[in-house]
From TrEMBL:
InterPro entries, A to Z: Kynureninase, PyrdxlP-dep_Trfase, PyrdxlP-dep_Trfase_major, PyrdxlP-dep_Trfase_small
Alphabetized NCBIfam families for the sequence: kynureninase
Protein's UniProt name: Kynureninase
Organism field: Pseudoduganella violacea
Coiled coil: none
Assembly and oligomerization: Homodimer.
A GO molecular-function annotation: pyridoxal phosphate binding
Amino acid sequence: MTTRKDCLDRDAQDALAPLREHFDLPAGVIYLDGNSLGARPKAALTRASDVIAREWGKDLITSWNTAGWFELPKRLGDRLAPLIGAAAGEVVVTDTTSLNLFKVLAAALHMQASDPARSERRVIVTERSNFPTDIYMAQGLAGWLQRGYSVRLVDTVDELPQAIDADTAVVMLTHVNYRTGYQHDMASTSALAHARGALIVWDLAHSAGAVPVALERDGADFAVGCTYKYLNGGPGAPAFAWVPRKHQARFQQPLSGWWGHAAPFAMAPDFAPTEGIGRALCGTQPIVSLAMVECGLDVFAQTTMDAVRAKSLALTDLFIALVEERCAGHGLGLVTPREHARRGSQVSFTHAHGYAVMAALIARGVIGDYREPAIMRFGFTPLYTSFADVWDAVEILKQILDEKAYDVHAERGAVT
Ligand SMILES: *Cc1c(COP(=O)(O)O)cnc(C)c1O
C-alpha cells in the first residue's frame, strides 16, 4: 500500500518538481483544476505590469511596432507550435476557441465545396459528448450556410467508422474529452477520415500542454485549442489555431477582418488575404491578455512534453489507485480510461452526490470541478502538482465520504 512517505520520496526524485516554483498557488490549496483554468505563473504579474505601465503607459501607440504587439499572435504561435507537433508559421494565438473553430470549420467546408469530387458533401460528423460549444458552433455554421449542411452526432467512438461516409465533408473531434478524459487515437482517426474523403479538425483544448500531440505526423488537417487550461495563459486568454502549410494557400475563412489582409494599413476597400497563417487572424487582439500566454509557454520551454506526459500518467495512475483503495465502498465510479494511450491528464469519477462532494472538497482546499451528469473532475498538471498533493487530496476525499460531510442541497454558482 502506498504511503504518504512514498509520495514524498517520489517528489524528491521528480525532475519536474522545481517547476512548481514558477507558479503562485495559495497556501493550503491543492489545485486539481488546471484543466479548466491553469494556475498563474509568477512571471505573469510582472509581465502584466510591464505591458500596462511601460508598453501601454509610456510608449503608447508606438508599442504596436516597438514592443512587437502586431506580431504577437504569430510569435506566440511559433512558440506554441512544438508542443503540438506543428511547424513555425503554422499557428496563431488569437480570438477564442469557439471562434477559431468556426474559422477552420468554415475553411474546411469551403475546401471541400471547391473540390469537384467532394462538392456535394454536406455533413459535419462529431460526437454528442463533445464540448457543447464545439457542437453549437458547427450547428450555427451549418444552419447559417443554408445549403443542406448538417451536423451528425455519434454516441460512441465505435460508431465513427460507420458515421463517416460519402456525405461527410468534415470530421470534427476533441482529442481529449472534457468530461471523461478519453483520448482519441489521432493518427488512425485522421487516416479513417481521409480514407472516406473527409477532412479532419481536432480540438486540442484538453491536449495542448497536457499530452504530447503530433498534428503533422498524425495527419490532422486543422486544429484549435485553449491557452487558459493546461497552458496557463490566464482567464480568457486567447486561443490558438493551426493551419498547416499544405492547406494555407486554399485556406479561406469567412471572418475576413483587416488583420488577415495582405496589407492592412493600405486601407484598401477590397479584402485580399495575406499569405500564410496570418489569414487565420481577424481583428485587433487583446494585447494584455495575449502577452500573458508567453509566461505559461516560458515554463514549458524548460521541459519536454514527454517528461510532462510521464509525470501526468504517474499522477493519474496514483490518484486512481489511491481512490479505489482508500474510498472503496463509497459509490465512486471511474469514468476515465485506465489504458494510458486512451487517457488525457484528468481523472473523472461519478458519484450520486458529485456536486455536493466537490463543493465539500473545494471548501477544504481541494479544487477540482463538477460536470453534468454526476461527474467529479480532477485535472493533473505535472508542472505544479506533486505526488504528495495526490495523497492529500485522496485523504480529504476519504474523510468527506467517510463522514458524509457534504450538503446534498449545496447551492450552485453560475460556473461549476
Ligand atoms: C474549454 C473548451 C472550449 C472553450 O471555448 P471558448 O471559446 O474558449 O469558451 C471549447 N472547446 C473545448 C473542447 C473545450 O474543452
